[in-house]
Specification:
It contains 4 helices and 8 strands. It is an alpha/beta fold. The longest helix has 13 residues.
Length: 213
């Protein structure tokens, strides 16, 4: 029988974008996106520290298909930093859809990190924006606080969770993705690509049951 993982003072739960627009009924709804909420709430009782990320786009953001004449959601364009997927308008600053899911409860959360707020740069990762140069400041915060292990959960596994986990590992943190506390935009090919990427980066995928109670 595998031993469980004990959670300690140097461990952090990174909760990625559990917002209304990514849940059923939202503008960029992920199938069963709201199913992660009770799992994350249970996990939050095991951790002493957490960070919440929040997609926080200005109206007319570069990543919105509506900002580009004749373009539709899920088409790609080339921007200054490379290829950019276009999305439906979502998580617009101060909108209802940008709010966290109403049932999300993470009392151990300390900072809320807002990303994607620059008009002309999208931001999937909690660590770096999509130009792969602009830092969010999260790495420095985590290092200053002495965290060594990150457990990543949230939405969506094949986009913002994936980029955040990869950048976490790249920054030198021991990184876990808790699979049953995530959902993917594309639960087949997107999930498979993420799993291959995690294996290559040394990121461990676990179930929430692997953590000690």
């Amino acid at each position: 029988m595998k031993s469980s993982i004990d959670v300690g003072e140097s461990d952090l739960l990174l909760v990625v974008d559990v917002q209304k627009d990514f849940c059923p009924g939202g503008r960029l709804a992920i199938e069963e996106g709201d199913a992660v909420v009770p799992v994350i709430n249970r996990l939050a009782r095991r951790f002493r520290h957490a960070v919440l990320t929040q997609d926080w786009h200005p109206a007319g953001h570069l990543s919105f298909a509506s900002s580009h004449f004749g373009k539709r959601p899920f088409e790609s364009i080339i921007v200054s930093y490379g290829e950019q997927m276009l999305w439906p308008d979502h998580c617009v600053q101060n909108s209802d859809g940008a709010e966290f899911h109403t049932e999300l409860s993470v009392p151990c959360a300390e900072p809320i990190l807002r990303k994607g707020f620059r008009q002309d740069i999208d931001s999937y990762s909690a660590f770096r924006e999509n130009d792969r140069k602009t830092s969010t400041g999260l790495r420095g915060y985590l290092q200053e606080r002495g965290f060594t292990r990150l457990f990543v959960v949230g939405l969506a596994l094949d986009v913002c969770v994936r980029f955040s986990a990869e950048d976490s590992a790249h920054a030198g943190f021991e990184t876990y993705v808790i699979e049953d506390a995530c959902r993917a935009v594309d639960p087949k090919s997107g999930l498979e690509a993420a799993m291959r990427s995690f294996a290559k980066a040394g990121i461990t995928m676990i179930d929430s049951g692997a953590l000690a109670s």
